[in-house]
Amino acid sequence: MISTPNYFHLSPCCVPQGMDEADSAAVSAPWLQDCVVSLSPCSDLMVIAKNHKAVFLSVKWRTDDGGREEMNLAVSWSGTLSTEEGESISSVICIPLASQKRSSTGRPDWTCVVVGFSSGYVRFYTETGVLLLAQLLNEDRVLRLKCRTYEIPRHPGVTEQHEELSILYPAALVTIDGFSLFQSLRACRNQVARAAAAGSEVVQPPPLAYKKWGLQDMDAIVDHSSVGIMTLCVFDQMKNASILGGFHASVKGNPPAMSQHITVGGGPYTGFYYAIEGSSQPLLSHVALAVASKLTSALFSAASGWLGWKKQSEEETTQKQRPKVEPATPLAVRFGLPDSRRHGESICLSPCNTLAGVTDDFGRVMLLDVGRGIAIRMWKGYRDAQLGWVQVSEGRGERESSPSAPLPRRHAQFLVIYAPRRGILEVWGTQQGPRVGAFTVGKHCRLLYAGYRLMGVNSVTSQGWQLHTQQVCLFDPATGALRTITVPFHLALSDKKSERAKDMHLLKRLTALLKNRELDPDILESEAQSILLDIKHPAIKKQVKRTNTRTHPPTERGQHIQGNFVHSSLLLFLSFRLWSLCLPIKVRLSPWEGAEGLEEELARVSITLQRYTQLTSGSRHSVSFAQDSPDASLPVQTFLSQMDCEGGKISVAPGPDAEWTQLGSFLFWGCLTGKVPLQKVCDKLQETGISPQQLLSLLLSVWLHREKEVLKRPDTARHLHTLLTALSSMKGAVEESWDVQCVSPWWQQVRSACVQSHSAAAALLAAIVSHHAAKANITSLAQAKFQSEWEAVSLELEQWAVCVRQLEDVLALQTLLCMPPPQGSPGGATPHCSVKSLLEGGRGISEADSVAKWVFRQALVLTEWSCFTLELLVSVCQRFPDSLSPDLLFAHCCWEYVVQWNKDPEEGRYLCWAVEHLKLVSSPHIQLGISSMMWNTFIVKRFSASAFLVEKVTCVTRLWSVCVLRIQDVGMGDAAMTSFMGSCVRLLQILMEADSGVEEVTPPELCVEEVWGGAEGPASIAELALEQKGVHYPLVQHHCLLASLLHAAMTFGLRVKPLSLFDSKGKNAFFRDLASIQLMPSGDMDPGLVSIRQEFLLRVLNAWVKTQVEAGEGEDPAAAQMGCGSGDKAWPSLCLDLGLLLQVSPDILLRHLVCELYNHGLDARAEQVMLEVEDKDVLGSQLLVLTGQRLSYSLLHSQTQTRPAMELLARLPPTLCTWLKAMDPSELACQSVPLTRTSRLVSRLIEILPENHGQYSLALHLLEAVEVLQGED
């Protein structure tokens, strides 16, 4: 949880109102996802569009119920924007236009709404929806509209960028110069205003001049950014010339100026385009070119009509004509970031045009260096992310007041990432900065980032302006709130190692603030207090103390501060805050009375307590004895034996827990149940002289050991509060000299008892009650000491807050662990946990390990989990967001299952579930480490034993001997051993995938919740996984190949010596450390070895086809024909993959598979596989024999011979008849095949056999014979 209220905030800005049902349906979260939304940088106009309709919302001031004025966005115009049939709105952008008046201070004159349509049209509107200009630039869908406005160059060497509007199409990019667009829009608006005033029709304006580039060498483009004009340095110019032209390349004198454009999409993932300035002239559509042959006359003629003296007939002719679309100038991609699997979704350029954020469909956010064209950082886990940038300038301070030349102000950039699937908004420092802020927002918000300011600004008109623009805003459709994002500059200096640098910056701000003579005293006090609270470094605190307590010379400013009461109070506060670090920070609150706050706190945890009570007070019965009950009468002898008297003072002698609890019940249970007057008991105990500490121990003992009875009596909490208050007021309980900023031994005793107790609910109730009692005690002491009504915030209360939070977490976890296991599950005793056990178990270990054991107990009926069980699991994960993050939880579940499997290897499902949980781990680093640990700790020994066992089992003929060998050597039977090999294959595949992915992402940072940061103990599974060495990919693949062969042999019951399928190098590499470099097989294998491998793979295919036939028996014939029966259909593709690794021709395997499928009557499946065969001639010859066997069975078999068949046999050519008689139908696995399938097979034969084939005529005769037989049937 990140909370930085002093550094970073989301402030409410304005609320959209007035949207009717036709435009917005209802203010529900998902509606915004289907709309196109654009917000003006000045936050004074928002456009929401969908399909062909749009709503314009403008700023209006409204007075709320409290009399305060607030800014709201209300509907100013709504309607339909589409004019062409079937077109829809695809992109919108709001461009504020600067005022040309000299008195302007930076506010926009008006805002133009630019709308792109699916038809290719781009239309320009006013804030009231009046059409100014429309132009067809390309006959394709407008993907994105983006704008670039003028920015004052930060350094003298930075190229001044021109204003520009860019329109992206799927294969083209159109750029319109900002200066000409600004002038045209102003003229259009003025002409529309004049026409509206005069009541005349609006004259069609001339088209805009533009440049159109045809983007090439990319498969798909979805977004772009126009960086602007750049000039290469001399070194880069000479480097490019040398690479492209070789040694004798010539270099021009001056590097050319180029416009840089970056696109994202696919193939490549990111493309960089460079258009040399002057290489393409601006294009004008045919409306201007048709008037005259020369450009000047064309423009003059068009402008004349625009100004009012154009003929009506010419206007009608122009409107009827379809605009001509100019061809694009080809522009090849200079270079890109190729990634065939990654597809970009959006790109967001930084304000200084040096960095860009890119999102993709893998859920990554990549930071690009625009100048170098490389990726410098990547964030993971941000699917459907939305990006924005915040640029912050350094405050005016020491740099402006430097005695020498004033130093330039520094600027910092922050990347804003909104992850809608997680509902979180994060702010990151660039380029390698940390995350400086994170906020939980809605899951259906929209991050609005313009990336530009006012259009029409230049270096002359911007002098003295203060541009009132927002950089990034977040729109929440559920609440209608529009929030701005503000980041202080000093966060750019703060990371894990530069806390001193941040505090030094705050010290400079404080010094400059105190030197400011014009600042209002109230503002000075509030800002100085805010800065002081932000300073954390002890050395800087001392420096501020010396600075503010030092005697200054009597200056005019000093005399003014000494004479001003507010300033004197401020200096007093600064000195008090800095040198008195142990004194309480006071917050003014209403006085606490009675147990009102206690009741609210108990109500907050009541739901969790009810769940815990429901699970712990179930129907399970136990045997108990009356004499062991805490309510049993206490004999006098026992009571006296527990009392000691030393020096005239009575004390309680320590004894066993049972006796201690019995004595506590005797003394306090009546008070807790309300049966005995509390005050009388306390007065009597105080008279005895027993130390309050022992009485407190007795009270806590009875409270914690009688948890079930406490939970059944809601009023016991109030009685406990009264007892604690009375005991703490006894002499010797809380020392009068106790400083509220120090830890009280009295209350520390209560906390120690609570954190050590396994009674989670009773401990939480005791902590909440004690927290309120301690708070009242501290408040009374502070009031007596400071004589004020302020509430003291002390170290004691901070420790209580942490303790209560820890106990709430433990109660949620214990509630989950108390869920009874279902019948038939492994079961076991319910584990118990406490704060102490979690802290001593390691950082994040005990929580994840406990939940993993609970998952193991419940996993046998995973699909039958109730909503109540899932709700409990989710609530626990929410309380431990770091310790029970998905990756850590899945890693611990994986380890728990593999440990349980190792105890009983016959339970192969445990190992399967372990591998399935391992697949769910998203971090490849953790996945790689867990896989390596599993392999080295549990798998490799049994895997090697299994391989050697299968190698020698071929010599054993008796079945019982095989079973005895497998159980003795491996500890598993046939079924468990087959499941084990399948799990080994999947584990090694995961290991290879993780090894390939570790280079793409950075290792995760393992952290724990803030309240559990003091945990100590052994390293967690994830930490051990991150410490594992990498693996040698070829060696892992080598073992995966062996596991796949063993799995195939065991699945289909094939006798094979698996190690004999490898040469000596391959055998020696087996069962070595996967991180070691071994001598692997390379080059062409021995043909004899390849032949053995081929024979084995063919046997696997034969066995698989038989299982498909068996799976189809008893099913629908059509389903069986299409292979819809049971059975794993991945074996053929697996055999092909194994063939590539074993140097077996895949085409041989495919041909054999086709023949086997036809042989077993699976013709439809065989036709599908036939499409992948390359050598159709050989396949045709093989299938010709199979066709002859089918026809021979139909014509010559004794049981199927008919008179028409005999007549047909007599008419056949002698060669065909002789050939059919030579066929042996007994080789067919499926002899009774319908003639329709045989006819289709012969037709396929004629298609694949060339006409010059030796057996082509035989195939024709077969086709004729089959057709005759079909006709007779």
From TrEMBL:
Single GO MF descriptor: GTPase activator activity
Keyword Cytoplasm attached: yes
Domain Rab3-GAP regulatory subunit N-terminal: start-end pairs: 31-448
Principal place of residence: cytoplasm
GO cellular component: cytoplasm
All residue ranges annotated as the Rab3GAP regulatory subunit C-terminal domain in the record: 694-860, 869-1250
Subcellular location: Cytoplasm
Coiled coil segments of this chain: none
Key words of the record: Cytoplasm, GTPase activation
Family of the protein in this entry: Belongs to the Rab3-GAP regulatory subunit family.
This protein's name: RAB3 GTPase activating protein subunit 2 (non-catalytic)
Organismal lineage: Eukaryota, Metazoa, Chordata, Craniata, Vertebrata
Gene (UniProt): RAB3GAP2
